[in-house]
Design a protein that fits this description.
Helix content: 25-40%
Number of helices: 1
Shape: elongated
Number of strands: 2
Radius of gyration: 13 Å
Number of domains: 1
Oligomer: single chain
Length: 49
């Protein structure tokens, strides 16, 4: 089991109107970030449903 103490893992969680996690964007390396376009597309999909 791998445990990374003290190392941030950038994560964005999208929660829909019902309070359910609809998308999770997470990166393994702290220098990487989820792509803004991917997050916005997920939000638009949720808003349209």
């Amino acid at each position: 089991m791998r445990i990374d103490h003290g190392i941030p893992h950038p994560t964005i969680v999208v929660i829909d109107a019902d309070g359910v996690v609809s998308h999770r964007f997470s990166e393994q390396r702290y220098t990487d970030r989820p792509e803004v376009d991917d997050v916005l597309a997920a939000l638009k999909r949720d808003a349209g449903s």
